[in-house]
Amino acid sequence: MDIDAWVWWLIGAVGLGIPLVLTAMPEFGMFAVGAVAASVTAALGGGVVAQVLVFVIVSVALIAVVRPIANRHRDQRPQHRSGIDALRGRTAVVLERVDGSGGRIKLAGEIWSARTFDTDTSFEPGQSVDVVEIDGATAVVM
After folding, report:
1. What does each C-alpha distance from 86 to 58, 83, 109 come to in angstroms?
2. Is residue 57 within 8 Å of residue 97, measured between CB atoms?
3. DSSP label at residue 46
4. Is the separation of the CB atoms in 84 and 134 below 8 Å?
5. Residue 36: CB partners within 8 Å, gap ≥ 6?
6. Is 124 helix (H, G, I), strand (E, B) or coil?
7. What is the pLDDT along the chain (142 residues), one digit of tens a residue?
8. CA dist., res. 51 & res. 3, Å (int)
9. pTM above 0.85, yes or no
10. What three-state secondary structure class fits 70?
Protein backbone atom coordinates (compact mmCIF):
# COMPACT_ATOMS: atom_id res chain seq x y z
CA MET A 1 0.00 0.00 0.00
CA ASP A 2 1.52 3.27 -1.15
CA ILE A 3 0.26 6.32 0.78
CA ASP A 4 1.08 9.81 -0.44
CA ALA A 5 3.02 12.19 1.81
CA TRP A 6 0.10 14.59 2.17
CA VAL A 7 -1.98 11.79 3.73
CA TRP A 8 0.79 11.12 6.28
CA TRP A 9 0.80 14.80 7.19
CA LEU A 10 -2.97 14.73 7.71
CA ILE A 11 -2.64 11.63 9.88
CA GLY A 12 0.02 13.52 11.86
CA ALA A 13 -2.32 16.50 12.19
CA VAL A 14 -5.06 14.28 13.59
CA GLY A 15 -2.50 12.64 15.89
CA LEU A 16 -1.51 16.10 17.19
CA GLY A 17 -5.15 17.06 17.60
CA ILE A 18 -5.81 14.21 20.02
CA PRO A 19 -3.48 15.51 22.79
CA LEU A 20 -4.92 18.98 22.15
CA VAL A 21 -8.34 17.71 23.15
CA LEU A 22 -7.11 15.52 26.00
CA THR A 23 -4.69 17.97 27.62
CA ALA A 24 -6.11 21.34 26.51
CA MET A 25 -2.62 22.46 25.50
CA PRO A 26 -3.04 24.83 22.55
CA GLU A 27 0.51 24.20 21.34
CA PHE A 28 -0.62 20.82 19.99
CA GLY A 29 -3.26 22.60 17.93
CA MET A 30 -0.63 24.90 16.49
CA PHE A 31 1.51 21.91 15.53
CA ALA A 32 -1.57 20.30 13.96
CA VAL A 33 -2.13 23.40 11.83
CA GLY A 34 1.54 23.22 10.81
CA ALA A 35 1.01 19.59 9.76
CA VAL A 36 -2.03 20.58 7.68
CA ALA A 37 0.07 23.29 5.97
CA ALA A 38 2.77 20.70 5.25
CA SER A 39 0.07 18.41 3.85
CA VAL A 40 -1.01 21.14 1.44
CA THR A 41 2.62 21.65 0.46
CA ALA A 42 2.97 17.91 -0.24
CA ALA A 43 -0.28 17.86 -2.24
CA LEU A 44 1.01 20.74 -4.37
CA GLY A 45 4.15 18.77 -5.16
CA GLY A 46 6.63 20.23 -2.68
CA GLY A 47 9.56 18.06 -1.71
CA VAL A 48 10.27 16.61 1.71
CA VAL A 49 12.52 19.53 2.66
CA ALA A 50 9.82 22.05 1.69
CA GLN A 51 7.19 20.09 3.64
CA VAL A 52 9.31 20.02 6.80
CA LEU A 53 10.21 23.71 6.43
CA VAL A 54 6.54 24.67 6.03
CA PHE A 55 5.62 22.57 9.07
CA VAL A 56 8.33 24.18 11.22
CA ILE A 57 7.73 27.74 9.99
CA VAL A 58 3.94 27.61 10.40
CA SER A 59 4.14 25.91 13.81
CA VAL A 60 6.77 28.29 15.19
CA ALA A 61 4.98 31.33 13.76
CA LEU A 62 1.72 30.30 15.38
CA ILE A 63 3.40 29.69 18.72
CA ALA A 64 5.28 33.00 18.51
CA VAL A 65 2.16 35.01 17.61
CA VAL A 66 -0.81 33.24 19.18
CA ARG A 67 0.67 32.09 22.50
CA PRO A 68 1.56 35.58 23.84
CA ILE A 69 -1.90 36.84 22.89
CA ALA A 70 -3.54 33.88 24.64
CA ASN A 71 -1.39 34.41 27.74
CA ARG A 72 -2.39 38.08 27.92
CA HIS A 73 -6.07 37.17 27.75
CA ARG A 74 -5.66 34.40 30.32
CA ASP A 75 -3.81 36.67 32.77
CA GLN A 76 -6.42 39.43 32.69
CA ARG A 77 -8.69 39.38 35.68
CA PRO A 78 -12.42 39.80 35.14
CA GLN A 79 -13.37 43.45 35.39
CA HIS A 80 -16.87 42.73 36.59
CA ARG A 81 -17.39 41.01 39.92
CA SER A 82 -20.61 39.08 40.36
CA GLY A 83 -22.43 37.07 43.01
CA ILE A 84 -21.14 37.35 46.55
CA ASP A 85 -17.83 38.74 45.27
CA ALA A 86 -19.70 41.86 44.17
CA LEU A 87 -21.12 42.33 47.69
CA ARG A 88 -17.79 42.37 49.53
CA GLY A 89 -16.70 45.91 50.32
CA ARG A 90 -20.15 47.41 49.76
CA THR A 91 -21.92 49.63 52.25
CA ALA A 92 -25.16 48.51 53.90
CA VAL A 93 -27.69 50.12 56.23
CA VAL A 94 -28.54 48.49 59.56
CA LEU A 95 -32.27 47.69 59.88
CA GLU A 96 -32.20 45.78 63.19
CA ARG A 97 -29.41 45.95 65.75
CA VAL A 98 -26.38 44.00 64.52
CA ASP A 99 -23.94 42.44 66.96
CA GLY A 100 -21.86 39.29 67.22
CA SER A 101 -24.94 37.08 67.43
CA GLY A 102 -26.93 38.55 64.55
CA GLY A 103 -29.12 41.30 63.15
CA ARG A 104 -30.51 42.58 59.83
CA ILE A 105 -29.12 44.91 57.18
CA LYS A 106 -30.24 46.23 53.81
CA LEU A 107 -27.57 45.34 51.26
CA ALA A 108 -27.92 45.99 47.53
CA GLY A 109 -31.68 46.47 47.89
CA GLU A 110 -32.18 43.19 49.77
CA ILE A 111 -32.56 42.38 53.43
CA TRP A 112 -29.76 40.19 54.76
CA SER A 113 -29.03 38.60 58.08
CA ALA A 114 -25.80 39.98 59.44
CA ARG A 115 -23.33 39.71 62.28
CA THR A 116 -20.37 41.84 63.25
CA PHE A 117 -16.80 40.90 62.42
CA ASP A 118 -15.76 41.87 65.95
CA THR A 119 -18.07 40.18 68.48
CA ASP A 120 -17.68 43.09 70.96
CA THR A 121 -19.02 45.66 68.47
CA SER A 122 -22.65 46.45 67.74
CA PHE A 123 -24.43 48.73 65.27
CA GLU A 124 -27.83 50.40 65.73
CA PRO A 125 -30.57 50.86 63.10
CA GLY A 126 -29.78 53.58 60.57
CA GLN A 127 -26.02 53.22 60.81
CA SER A 128 -23.92 52.42 57.75
CA VAL A 129 -21.69 49.36 57.83
CA ASP A 130 -19.18 47.85 55.44
CA VAL A 131 -19.54 44.23 54.31
CA VAL A 132 -16.31 42.35 55.01
CA GLU A 133 -17.41 38.94 53.73
CA ILE A 134 -20.42 36.75 53.07
CA ASP A 135 -20.64 33.64 55.26
CA GLY A 136 -23.38 31.46 53.79
CA ALA A 137 -26.48 33.66 53.88
CA THR A 138 -25.05 36.01 56.50
CA ALA A 139 -23.16 39.21 55.82
CA VAL A 140 -20.23 39.82 58.12
CA VAL A 141 -19.97 43.58 58.71
CA MET A 142 -17.81 46.14 60.45
Report:
1. 44, 6, 13
2. no
3. -
4. yes
5. 9, 10, 13
6. coil
7. 578 999 999 999 999 989 888 887 888 999 999 999 999 999 999 999 999 999 999 999 999 999 888 888 877 766 677 788 888 989 999 999 999 999 999 998 999 999 999 989 999 999 999 999 999 889 999 9
8. 16
9. no
10. helix
